[in-house]
Amino acid sequence: AAMQGGPVASRELPLGREHGRTFMARAAPVAGTAEGGTVLVLHDISELKRADQIRRDFVANVSHELRTPLTAIRGYVEALLDEPDDPAEARRFLEIIARHSTRMERLVKDLLRLARLDARQEPLDMARCDVAQAFTSVVADFEPSIEDKRQQVQTSVAPDAASVMADPAKLHDVIRNLVENALNYSPEGAEVRLASSRGDGCVRLTVSDSGPGIPEDDLTRVFERFYRVDKSRSRPGGTGLGLAIVKHLVELHGGQARAENLPGGGARFTISLPDVVADMGEPTA
Questions:
Q1: Cβ of 145: how many Cβ atoms within 10 Å?
Q2: What are the CA-CA distances from residue 71 to residues 95, 104, 237, 240 (Å)?
Q3: What distance in Å separates the CA atoms of residue 229 and residue 239, rounded to the nearest whole number?
């Protein structure tokens, strides 16, 4: 139609199957020439399409994650309204309601925190943090569940990476979310390893698990909100926002977070935090 001087609507064209790129194609006739012709403009909208899909998935996942506990709570409330004669049964119903309420509370808190992080509304209170102490504090939080699953947590702190400049509370949250994820995906009796090292002006903290690992195609997406590697499986714990919060908190420090598979099985999450804070005049350890 453009060759004949007629109007042509914009169209989306999926090109490049390997990388899944999408282009918006616009064509317009060339005026003022005897031969005629058409100008074709391709605009890469792949990132816009990906962002829109992430937004759609996010809304759908929030709805699902809230609807699931709400449905359970409603069911058990209706059962209690029927006035069960067994006090033990009534107590069991109340415990289930309490558990689902706690899950919803955690989800809402994580959503609100992500909103604050997106808006850059969480200031940093930087201080020199002891890495070994941070590891020990987080492991202590999970001691009951570690004992229940007979898991082991091993820590290794390099002498030149014994401390790092960070916000202590936010560093604790980062390590806690990574350790919780590792414990959830590791089987009973498995080992989770925490380690620190130094390189390229950064302190690297790693959390390695003994789980099933992560498919290569999913490695770049595990830090997305609510993303699940196996869509057919229910989430083993948490709200599905822990790794997204990790990424935001690390980037708030000017660092990076990445995931990789280990040769012998399992996954390793690494956060790299710059250990130079010029305006505070703090020397690196």
A1: 13
A2: 15, 12, 18, 19
A3: 15
pTM of the model: 0.71
Q: Are residues 58 and 101 in the same domain?
A: yes
Question: Residues in the chain, how many?
Answer: 285
Going by C-alpha positions, the residue among 111, 255, 275, 250 that lies closest to residue 178 is 250
Residue 91 lies inside a defined structural domain of this protein: yes
Report the phi/psi class of residue 189: left, alpha or beta, with left for phi > 0 and alpha for psi in -120 to 50: left
What does the pLDDT look like over 86-110, one tens digit per residue?
Answer: 888 888 889 999 988 888 888 888 8
Q: Are residues 132 and 253 in the same domain?
A: yes
CB contact burial 59-94 (16+ within 10 A = b; e otherwise)? eebbeebeeebeebbeebeeeeeeeeeeeeeeeebe
Number of domains in the chain: 3
DSSP for 226-276, written as a single string: T--S-TTS--SSS-S-HHHHHHHHHHHTT-EEEEEE-TTSSEEEEEEEE--
CATH of the domain at 102: 1.10.287.130
Residues 157-200 pLDDT 10s: 999 999 999 999 999 999 999 999 999 989 999 999 999 999 88
| Domain assignment present for 14 | yes
142 and 18 part of one domain: no
Average pLDDT over residues 227-232: 60
Report long-range pairs for 14-21 (Cβ below 8 Å, ≥24 apart).
20/46, 21/46
The answer on 256 and 140 residing in a single domain is: yes
Distances (CA, A) of 213 to 187, 189, 210, 237: 12, 17, 8, 17
Domain region containing 78? 52-118
* Same domain assignment for residues 180 and 234: yes
